[in-house]
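Newbie here. two chains, one complex. Structure please?
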Amino acid sequence: MVNMIIGALLFAAMTYLGVGIDLYYRERLRLAEDYAVFIAHARLELKFLKTDLETLLNSYKGGKTKEFKKLLDKCAALLGTGEEATVESAYLSEPQKKAFAAFINSLAKADYTDLALLIGHAEEESAELLKGARAGKTNKGELYRKLLILAGVGIMIMVL
Amino acid sequence: MLEDLLGDIAAYVKDGFVTEIRLRIGKGIVIKGASDRRTLPYTVKRADIENIIARATKNSLYAYQDYISKGFLPYAGGVRIGLAGKGVAENGKLVTIRDISSLNIRVPHEIRGCAAPLRHITDDFQSTLIVSPPFAGKTTLIRDMARALALKYDITVIDERDEICGGIGGAGDFGDVISGVDKSLATEGAIRSLAPEIIVMDELFPEKDGALVESVVRAGVKILASVHADSFERITALAPSFVGHFSYGVLLGYKPSVGSIKSIVRFGHG
């Protein structure tokens, strides 16, 4: 009986870990998708409607993740106080965080002629981020989930 | 309002009547009052200029490109920030200014009643040209005249640079206001759709705006406008057909104080 409980607990723990890792990569992909959609939205708003950056960041409602909205709100708040935007996220690597912050800070200083170039560069970076996030979800998230669930089943059998 | 724009250096700009603040990288801040000019003990840094531009443009330089290509940035309350730096031209037109090295922040002031000496003109209005050298109070006078005219006539203010009505006065104080658009673009629409009796415009340039004035007069609409010049003789000699569209001329000067009416003439046309 004790063995069964221990086995079930170990299986649950391994499954929880596997699903957690998978969720992390899924969320990372959603964040990358949000970023790509935001850049497309920014192209329209900034180039054609000349919406100011703080309004764009504060009013954007297109994100699927709360994390992305949080990032934008923080950037808008920092810009509003005259500081440079910074990005903190558990789902992004250091270079990705720097690239995101650099995009926002460059937008704040870009004149109209530089805008297209800047957005084009951000689209390229975003495409790379999206590619990496998709690969991460398939190659790591789903793989770890399956492996850890299988390992959990194996451990449970061994304990029993 | 000015504190928000100036940020940390606002502390150096003491209270008092300020009409102009000049910031040049590496130089002291220069403050102009109604009749005095003083240099403050603060050396302007590039970061000061960049921060003011960031605040004025709400961190969105690209959104103000049209203004920058005209050499200024608008700010809340009718404040206008003149820019100097490296001009970038394309097809013979200034498209932007880079490496901005100095700013001239002009603070508008409303002096209610300053148009009272011109009551005989505003009561039975005929096209009037305010002739004034820069910084002699022509916008202040036009603003007060527009307010007086709006009580009696249907007027449209073409406030290209948001200086006449921007942030000053309540809605309707100046009749109909079209702001932030080039005069030539705004005037045609105004005549067609707003049917004004009087159109008010600031800072005309006879070489550029002569045809515009002619089209307004041809439509039977009267004009209150201003032009940069230091005497009637000079403006009449340089642009006789332009002056010919106006009935009255009001010459402003700096002495005894800014905004002093030096003379009023009847051109005998208009």
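Moderator note: The mean pLDDT of chain A is 90. Residues 43 and 49 of chain A are 9 Å apart (CA to CA). Thread marked as resolved.
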